[in-house]
């Protein structure tokens, strides 16, 4: 290796950028990270929206180490299975926002999204509707970076420059019921699925407009389309319920999850396939699902998921999300009311302060880091998505840092 030269190609980063001054993370405990210069900073973003149970949780560490002592992983392609993956799937179905169903496991949110898109189209084929191939997604939606998710992206910039994408993806303006209804009116007989986050996360923490998610449900039901709720950020407690669909009182057909299912201790993602979609997939008892990942049902990842679910329940983290979220909302709202920021968006325990035109989100991020907290710059705002194990004092510290970092 050439001295000083990094061989790491960073995601969502200019390849030619000199990364030698990147912020080096060394360790973490609870909601606090230690940097390579010895500084301790508060993680206001739970890493990248995922570390709900906090860093260095002994129970999760022990579950992982315990599993490694038995077997780290063995695949679950036909005819293999294992008790840990079975238990994790059962625990997730038990907490799902729709009845019954099965869980398909992957590793990343992008894999979960691509799996859900493929399952939705496959379900339509198996139900006798091969003409139903259209997938509708909305602007500001973020659905990962595999080809399916890239095709469903709600950001033009993320869809450009990769050559041909997956056909039959239709994009509608976010939160616009009329626009969605128009696509259904024109192409309803060909719509396989709608994919939507309950609350749009990476797009800038945008809650659903009143009645919007209900409209997706209604239109999907009326036209025989499947509703995919992309819960990669909202799932596992962020909005004070196990799933965002539950928080908003919606019953989707498929749910994608990742991130907080294991708080990122070991990568795990998946798709909950509800009764209705499962019935379609099982229509022909001879049909085989020619889709899967080597690490689907990975024991160590599933052990981490079971431990995280247990920690979430034992420590009352769903309730904590609601309590801490109300405190964060109140504090940040004051900053917007005082004119330090233009607006506050969010719900549960995830928020974004919209910046003024002369206030670059990236500059606010660096000033916040100088104040000892990590926040995330997004298109028009800075994001807050702290670990659910944060303390009240840490929530207040985030608000104080955002105030100091405004200018
Ligand atoms: C809603 C949503 N879907 C999919 C993804 C992609 O997940 P991953 O980065 O794990 O592939 C993300 C990532 O932030 C997400 O927020």
Molecular structure report:
The chain has 407 residues and is of the alpha/beta class. It has two domains: 118 residues, Aspartate Aminotransferase, domain 1, CATH 3.90.1150.10; 254 residues, 3-Layer(aba) Sandwich (Aspartate Aminotransferase, domain 2), CATH 3.40.640.10. It contains 14 helices and 15 strands. Strands 4-10-9-8-7-5-6 form a seven-stranded mixed beta sheet, sandwiched between helices. Strands 1-2-3-13 form a four-stranded mixed beta sheet. A four-stranded antiparallel beta sheet has the order 11-12-15-14, with helices on one face. Strand 2 and strand 3 form a beta hairpin. Helix 2 packs antiparallel against helix 11 and helix 4 packs across helix 10. It is globular, with a radius of gyration of 21 Å. The structure holds pyridoxal-5'-phosphate (PLP).
Give the SSE map:
Layout lengths: L24 E5 L2 E4 L4 E4 L2 H4 L8 H13 L12 H12 L7 E5 L2 H18 L7 E5 L8 H6 L3 H4 L9 E4 L4 H11 L3 E6 L15 H12 L2 E5 L13 H4 L6 E4 L11 E5 L1 H7 L17 H16 L2 H21 L5 E5 L2 E5 L6 H10 L2 E2 L1 E2 L3 E4 L7 H13 L3
Parallel strand pairs: 3-13, 5-6, 5-7, 7-8, 8-9
Antiparallel strand pairs: 1-2, 2-3, 4-10, 9-10, 11-12, 12-15, 14-15
Helix pairs in contact: 2-11, 3-11, 4-10, 7-8, 12-14
The chain binds pyridoxal-5'-phosphate.
């Amino acid at each position: 290796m050439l001295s000083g030269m990094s061989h790491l190609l960073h995601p969502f980063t200019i390849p030619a950028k000199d990364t030698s001054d990147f912020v080096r993370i060394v360790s973490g405990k609870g909601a606090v990270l230690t940097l390579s210069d010895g500084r301790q900073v508060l993680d206001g973003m739970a890493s990248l929206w995922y570390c709900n149970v906090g860093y260095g949780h002994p129970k999760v560490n022990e579950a992982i180490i315990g599993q490694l002592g038995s077997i780290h992983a063995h695949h679950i392609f036909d005819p293999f299975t294992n008790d840990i993956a079975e238990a994790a799937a059962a625990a997730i179905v038990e907490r799902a926002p729709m009845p019954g169903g099965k869980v398909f496991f992957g590793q990343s949110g992008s894999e979960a999204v691509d799996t859900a898109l493929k399952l939705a189209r496959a379900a339509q084929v198996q139900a006798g509707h091969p003409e139903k191939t259209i997938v509708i997604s909305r602007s500001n939606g973020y659905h990962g970076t595999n080809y399916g998710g890239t095709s469903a992206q709600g950001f033009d910039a993320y869809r450009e420059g990769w050559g041909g994408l997956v056909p039959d993806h239709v994009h509608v303006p976010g939160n616009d019921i009329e626009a969605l209804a128009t696509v259904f009116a024109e192409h309803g007989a060909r719509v396989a699925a709608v994919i939507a986050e309950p609350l749009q996360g990476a797009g800038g923490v945008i809650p659903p407009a009143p009645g919007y998610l209900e409209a997706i449900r209604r239109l999907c039901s009326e036209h025989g389309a499947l509703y995919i709720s992309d819960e990669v950020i909202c799932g596992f407690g962020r909005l004070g319920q196990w799933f965002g669909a539950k928080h908003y009182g919606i019953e989707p057909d498929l749910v994608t999850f990742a991130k907080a299912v294991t708080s990122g201790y070991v990568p795990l993602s998946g798709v909950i396939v509800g009764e209705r979609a499962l019935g379609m997939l099982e229509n022909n008892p001879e049909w085989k699902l020619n889709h899967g990942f080597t690490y689907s049902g990975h024991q160590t990842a599933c052990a981490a998921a079971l431990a995280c679910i247990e920690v979430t329940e034992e420590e009352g983290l769903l309730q904590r999300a609601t309590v801490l979220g109300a405190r964060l909302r109140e504090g940040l709202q004051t900053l917007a009311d005082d004119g330090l920021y233009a607006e506050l968006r969010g719900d549960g325990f995830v928020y974004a302060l919209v910046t003024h035109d002369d206030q670059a989100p990236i500059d606010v991020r660096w000033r916040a880091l100088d104040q000892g907290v990590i926040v995330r710059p997004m298109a028009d705002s800075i994001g807050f998505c702290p670990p659910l194990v944060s303390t009240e004092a840490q929530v207040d510290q985030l608000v104080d840092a955002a105030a100091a970092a405004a200018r």
